[in-house]
Amino acid sequence: MSLRIGQNGRTVRRNIDSSVRRIEGNMRNLASGKRINRAADDAAAHQIAESFVTQVKGSTRAAKNAYDGIGLAQNSEAALGEIANMIHKMRELAVNAGNDTLTSADRQTLQAGAQALIDEIESIGRQTNFASQKTLDGSFLERAIHIGPGYRDAPLISIADSRARYLGRYAVRHTGPMSAVALETGDLMINDIRVRSTVALDDRLSSTQSRSSAIAKAEAINDASKLSNVTAMVDQNTFSGPGEILGGTLDSANHLSINGEVISGFHASIGDGDERIQDMINQVSEKTGVVASIDKKGRLQLVAEDGRNIHVKTTGTAHEMTGLGNAAGDTVNRASLTLVSEDLFTISDPDQNGAESKIGVVENEIVGPNELDVVSTIDISTRSGANRALVILDHAQEAIIQSRGKLAGLENRLEFTVSRLNEMAKNSYIARGKVVDADFAQESADLAKNNIVQTAFSNVLAQANQDSFRVLQLL
Question: What is the CATH number that goes with domain 48-167+383-427?
Answer without folding.
Answer: 1.20.1330.10
